[in-house]
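User: Can you recover a sequence for this backbone? Please restate the input before giving your answer.

Assistant: Of course. Working from this structure:
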């Protein structure tokens, strides 16, 4: 009876924690009747907004298969590495991917050998792949497998009962990938990604002789998939969707409570509760090359409250720490966030 009461108490406690967690994480609500247009809301951000932000143009991205000089080149791991990376970008929805037929034509003209070539001539690529903004190139830097045998064992508990554990075999694989993201037409490296993935399968065996890798290619491809999945956040955050603030309002009673109306919505992958970064662009001139240099600076964050204005519009609550720094005309960009369950199951 005591055990039943303890169990009920335990599960009630867990349920209470979950309720508090989900209620605490519920998206904030805004009553626009409490807000008005004040003097600060008539101010305009004095910065340069790039044209692609105003037009909300998605960058065009190509993914070339990585080279593979590992002992497992027969497994053609480069095919799945390319496919998993393409799927990750496609699911994010914040880039335009080069169609497969167009990509194959580019590869043929470059004389790029899938699984063997790891680099490209940036100038030649820029001429052939006109309109492509970014390209992923890289290599499979590591691939290995091993089998570990654990002999059968037994142990006796305090009540004198003996427990037995069967002999087992763990099949382990680890892969490493290095991708570089080249930006065109310049061909410069914008970012490098170092990805590591591991996969382990367990099974019972009758002897150490039976403990061998049964399907090395299948095991390594699972590790490739995990390597790319482990870097998903970094990949997605490399291509945020940009918009801008077209209106702000201030709480009638508390001037530190302000909201921004932004040109990002559900079609851009955001929802109530999402965090959005507020950006200021600075335009400078290179004194040597006499060319414009545009850099960005994060000046704050806001939390999405409402997304039902239009599929490309929403209301964002400006953090109180940034209330006096944010004006109409500032840029905004999406920020990828892991869900509670994604963090839990990592």
């Amino acid at each position: 009876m005591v055990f039943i009461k303890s169990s009920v108490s335990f599960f009630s406690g867990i349920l209470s924690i979950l309720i508090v967690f989900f209620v605490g994480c519920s998206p904030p609500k805004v009553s626009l009747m409490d807000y008005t247009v004040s003097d600060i809301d008539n101010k305009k951000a004095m910065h340069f907004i790039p044209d692609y932000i105003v037009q909300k143009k998605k960058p065009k991205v190509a993914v070339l298969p990585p080279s593979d000089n590992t002992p497992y080149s027969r497994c053609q791991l480069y095919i799945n590495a390319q496919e998993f990376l393409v799927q990750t970008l496609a699911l994010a929805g914040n880039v335009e991917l080069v169609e497969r037929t167009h990509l194959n034509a580019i590869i043929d003209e470059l004389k790029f050998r899938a699984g063997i070539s790891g680099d490209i001539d940036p100038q030649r690529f820029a001429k052939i792949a006109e309109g492509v903004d970014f390209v992923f190139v890289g290599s499979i830097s590591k691939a290995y497998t091993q089998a570990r045998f654990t002999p059968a064992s037994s142990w006796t508990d305090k009540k004198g009962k003996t427990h037995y554990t069967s002999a087992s075999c763990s099949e382990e694989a680890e892969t490493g990938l290095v991708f570089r993201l080249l930006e065109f037409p310049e061909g410069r490296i914008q970012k490098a990604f170092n990805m590591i993935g591991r996969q382990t399968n367990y099974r019972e065996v009758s002897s150490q002789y039976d403990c061998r890798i049964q399907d090395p290619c299948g095991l390594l491809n699972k590790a490739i998939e995990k390597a790319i999945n482990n870097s998903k956040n970094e990949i997605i955050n490399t291509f945020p969707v940009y918009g801008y603030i077209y209106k702000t309002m201030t709480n009638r009673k508390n001037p530190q409570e302000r909201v921004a109306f932004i040109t990002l919505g559900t079609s851009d992958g955001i929802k109530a509760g999402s965090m959005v970064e507020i950006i200021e662009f600075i335009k400078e001139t290179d004194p040597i090359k006499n060319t414009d240099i545009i850099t960005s600076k994060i000046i704050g964050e806001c939390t999405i409250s409402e997304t039902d204005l239009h599929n490309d519009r929403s209301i964002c609550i400006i953090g109180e720490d940034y209330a006096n720094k944010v004006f109409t005309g500032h840029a905004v960009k999406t920020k990828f966030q892991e869900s509670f369950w994604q963090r839990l199951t990592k």
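That completes the design. Residues 58-236 form a domain with the Rossmann fold fold (CATH 3.40.50.10610).
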